[in-house]
Amino acid sequence: MEEIPFSDFKKLDIRIGKVISAEKVENTDKLVKLVFDMGDHERQVVAGIAEIVEDPAELIGKEMPVLINLKPRMLKGEESNGMILAVNVDGRPTLMSPEKQVPPGSPIT
């Protein structure tokens, strides 16, 4: 990947979101619709993590990093207003969460 200047990285608004609802997107094998508590608002994100989550409801209460200033896009009829950050291990996503509980909306710095 090409290197980017620090000023480009500073454009990313990544915050910790706490999952308040999670369900599979109908008629898809990979997509899960997540709603996050972001502290001052709720945000819906559609993520390709169904293959690693047997029951999406297990994610409720989990905290994870969310890129919140990504332009919204439609995925299989659901609007996604951000992107969760995950680690790619052998082509499969692995979810990340803070070492300890933090307030929803806490910025990643």
Structural class: mainly beta
CATH C-level category:
Mainly Beta
The number of domains is 1
Rg from Cα: 14 Å
> What is the CATH homology-level superfamily?
Nucleic acid-binding proteins
Shape: globular
Strand arrangement across the biggest beta sheet = 3-2-1-4-7
In which range does the helix fraction lie?
under 10%
Catalytic activity: tRNA(Met) + L-methionine + ATP = L-methionyl-tRNA(Met) + AMP + diphosphate
Main location: cytoplasm
Domain TRNA-binding: 8-109
Function: Is required not only for elongation of protein synthesis but also for the initiation of all mRNA translation through initiator tRNA(fMet) aminoacylation.
Structure, described:
It comes from Candidatus Colwellbacteria bacterium CG10_big_fil_rev_8_21_14_0_10_42_22. Its main location: cytoplasm. Residues 8-109 form the TRNA-binding domain. Homodimer. One of its GO terms (biological process) is translation. The protein has 109 residues and is mainly beta. The chain has one domain: OB fold (Dihydrolipoamide Acetyltransferase, E2P), CATH 2.40.50. It has one helix and nine strands, in the order H-E-E-E-E-E-E-E-E-E. The protein has one helix spanning 6-9, and strands at residues 14-24, 32-37, 42-47, 63-67, 73-75, 78-80, 83-84, 86-89, 92-95. It has a five-stranded antiparallel sheet with strand order 3-2-1-4-7, with no helix packed on it. A two-stranded antiparallel ribbon has the order 5-6. A two-stranded antiparallel sheet has the order 8-9. A hairpin with a 2-residue loop joins strand 8 (86-89) and strand 9. It is globular and about 40 Å long. The two termini are 22 Å apart. The mean pLDDT is 96.
